[in-house]
Amino acid sequence: MILKSKLKTNYPTADPKEYLRGDIEGLDPIFAGRLAYVAKVNNAVFTITDGYRSYEDQVKMYNLYKAGKLQATAAVPGTSWHGSRLAVDTSSQPVRRMTSAELTKYGLCKPLKNEGWHIQPIETAKMGTKCNMSLAPEDLGPKLKAKFDIADSTVDYIGGYKYAADLATGLLAGKKDFAAETMKYLYSYKYWESLREKLGM
Fold this sequence. Notes:
Helices cover 37% and strands 9% of the residues. It has two domains: 3-135, Muramoyl-pentapeptide Carboxypeptidase, domain 2 (2-Layer Sandwich); 140-199. The radius of gyration is 18 Å and the shape is globular.
């Protein structure tokens, strides 16, 4: 999975792998980076108890909520911001006690008044409680796979690069030359010769 965010890049970010723990796989990369930056400036590591939630997972959670087996509320399947990769739940301090107004300078907000643990990117603040999938990040993996006839494992390797979305965007646009750091990452792939041929590099 190689997620290309649709969020603005005018807020500072930090490496999510360094400052976030727990359920972080599949989050919008810019959103995760903004949250990681809040952790960084507070010399903390935030544990995400609930991040990206698939439609199937949302169905399970909603059924638990309807059965009275869930302490919090749960959105109707297909309407949760968790499903768009643009919401997290965390009780880590100090972010848990921060207000939505305090988070604004980091490009984040707490749109649900009774859920101080629930955080979303600021772009969603005025969009209501039901998610708008138009802001969900785009997965470039399937496009790379189709254009270059590469295996899932190769897509996963590219997706493991810290600038994966930029690399994938460049490749899809026909770019052949990248920064030295990016080329070093590509060269280190154990099947680089085969990949280079497929990429036409």
